[in-house]
């Protein structure tokens, strides 16, 4: 692995040196993702334990917590991949599930819709930077399409036949927007709040993932009754 992958990363208020525990709040709050995974797993078992896609999302949620913990302790470039890749896997995996489970698209249409979302997600930040180069949201731009997807799919569900799923997705969208706000404000509040606000991104996102997995479990349970 090239030496550049071991370069230190200092993106958050809480980190003041390269040591392992320089971001204690940002590190320990990743336990919230593990709790979300445990909660969803218990719900999954009580619902019959046969929903493969949700079990996959539960496993990814646990990996999100582990990967983010690594990044906020080791704080090197390679650990950044351990942080962001599992999050992307959950986002795209849940979008694919939503296309089929909530919007009732066929497998081919669901995959094509997900591919279109991936393309939109990849092109969004460069387009934003072209028109609004000075508005960076502290590195949060890459998550704006996910918030838009929650809002859009939730609205389609709410005004379609999946009202319960729609309510859950819109609640998740609102919490995710709040979470993004805390993530975006972290660096600008360093002088007033040395711990920063990034740890709230972890806690709220764990709640968002729990809501999303719970909605998927509840929907499948309703369908199989």
What report would you give on this structure?
The protein is globular, with a radius of gyration of 18 Å. The protein has 225 residues and is an all-alpha fold. It has eight helices and no strands. The chain has one domain (23-224). 71% of the residues lie in helices and 0% in strands. The protein has helices at residues 24-28, 31-46, 52-74, 77-101, 107-131, 144-158, 163-185, 198-224. Helix 2 runs antiparallel to helix 3 (52-74) and helix 6 (144-158) runs antiparallel to helix 7 (163-185).
Short overview:
This protein is mainly α.
Pick out its properties.
globular, 225 residues, mainly alpha, 8 helices
List unreliable stretches of 5+ residues: none
Query: What is the typical, i.e. mean, pLDDT?
Result: 95
Rg (C-alpha, Å): 18 Å
Q: Please tally the β strands and state the result.
A: 0
Strand content: under 5%
What's the shape?
globular
Give the fraction of residues assigned to helices: over 70%
Q: What's the tally of helices?
A: 8
Along the chain, the helix and strand elements come as HHHHHHHH
Distance between the termini: 52 Å
| Count of spatially separate domains | 1
Describe the main β-sheet briefly: none
Q: Name the quaternary structure.
A: single chain
Kindly name the structural category.
mainly alpha
């Amino acid at each position: 692995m090239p030496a550049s992958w071991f370069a230190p990363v200092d993106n958050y208020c809480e980190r003041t040196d390269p040591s392992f525990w320089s971001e204690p709040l940002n590190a320990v709050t990743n336990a919230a993702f593990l709790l979300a995974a445990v909660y969803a797993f218990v719900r999954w078992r009580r619902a019959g334990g046969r929903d493969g896609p949700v079990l996959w999302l539960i496993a990814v949620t646990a990996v999100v917590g582990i990967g983010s913990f690594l990044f906020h302790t080791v704080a090197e470039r390679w650990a950044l991949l351990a942080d962001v890749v599992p999050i992307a896997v959950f986002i795209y995996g849940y979008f694919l599930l939503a296309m089929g489970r909530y919007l009732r698209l066929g497998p081919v249409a669901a995959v094509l819709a997900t591919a279109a979302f991936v393309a939109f997600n990849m092109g969004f930040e460069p387009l934003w930077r072209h028109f609004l180069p000075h508005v960076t949201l502290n590195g949060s731009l890459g998550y704006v399409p996910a918030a838009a997807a929650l809002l859009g799919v939730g609205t389609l569900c709410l005004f379609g036949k999946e009202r319960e799923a729609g309510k859950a997705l819109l609640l998740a969208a609102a919490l995710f927007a709040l979470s993004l706000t805390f993530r975006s404000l972290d660096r600008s509040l360093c002088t007033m709040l040395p711990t920063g606000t990034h740890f709230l991104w972890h806690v709220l996102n764990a709640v968002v993932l729990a809501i999303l997995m719970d909605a998927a479990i509840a929907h499948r349970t309703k369908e199989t009754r």
